[in-house]
């Protein structure tokens, strides 16, 4: 539907929120397309306002306040905010508490990394691995072809899907061990891969590092692969970044022999697995003995920004007695079928493989350079 014009009359000065909702948008069906609310002042002599726009919108939202200044707005056709008032309240609470009480928890594949480029599905930390054995690579691909449609299906009950994900991950790890994966193969696979970060990820990490805000990357992928992707693609390490993922154990010849700890798949990632975390820089001379104290400090940071691309990612903060949580969901696929559940579950939803600039803007609002 194309919104041609809008007209309303009301008594001013006044404060009012209204929306034009169109449910037949070809991609989103329902969306809040402004990253910021628009604030306008209408004097008693100007009680009529007419808006015209040729853009195709799903939801147009304006806020009229008793402020005489007009704030700039930026149209973002890929942003969905179901409950803007609740989000504003959360932002206020987190800002007032300060950065010392704040942490970021983020999924890796299809959250920090891009889902597609030029219409082609980007590789994941599991998918980029080439064992140097075509037989085992083909068997892992066959598992992906079978289980991935089940992973993204919006109709399979969560308990049933959890069992399916456990099957998939267990079989994949068995193939990696059986096929004799080496650490050198990981380095080569990352170098030859098409995996790429969303625009804005480096800038987000840099901002959080300056504010001494920790970042936990929770991933159902492979910790050793993720670390190598970060090293090769960001060209630097971040002292505030920790990886919570499936960690490999290699023998003296650099060959994979087992996995450390419990299996982490897409539906069981949470802070109960924090003891499996290792800093990105743990191989660069950091005293690993300091980790226990770090983990205690993490649990004391009870305000959270959580980012994921799957409804199961909302569980990543389970085990943390958080006070205020802002959640960002990246809905990359099955938009028509999944949007309603995403918009009601996440505080913000970004569609169509959106960049990370929105998240950077959010934390900048929370803790500006002038903030404590």
UniProtKB/TrEMBL annotation:
The reaction(s) this protein catalyses: a ribonucleoside 5'-phosphate + H2O = a ribonucleoside + phosphate
GO cellular component, one term: cytoplasm
Molecular-function GO term, any one: 5'-nucleotidase activity
Superkingdom: Eukaryota
Pfam families for this protein: UMPH-1
Enzyme class: hydrolase
Residue ranges that the Swiss-Prot or TrEMBL entry lists as coiled coil: none
Keyword annotations: Hydrolase, Magnesium, Metal-binding, Nucleotide-binding
InterPro entries from the UniProt entry: Pyrimidine_nucleotidase_eu
Known EC number: 3.1.3.5
Family from the record: Belongs to the pyrimidine 5'-nucleotidase family.
PANTHER family named in the record: 5'-NUCLEOTIDASE, 7-METHYLGUANOSINE PHOSPHATE-SPECIFIC 5'-NUCLEOTIDASE
Name of the protein: 5'-nucleotidase
Lineage: Eukaryota, Viridiplantae, Streptophyta, Embryophyta, Tracheophyta
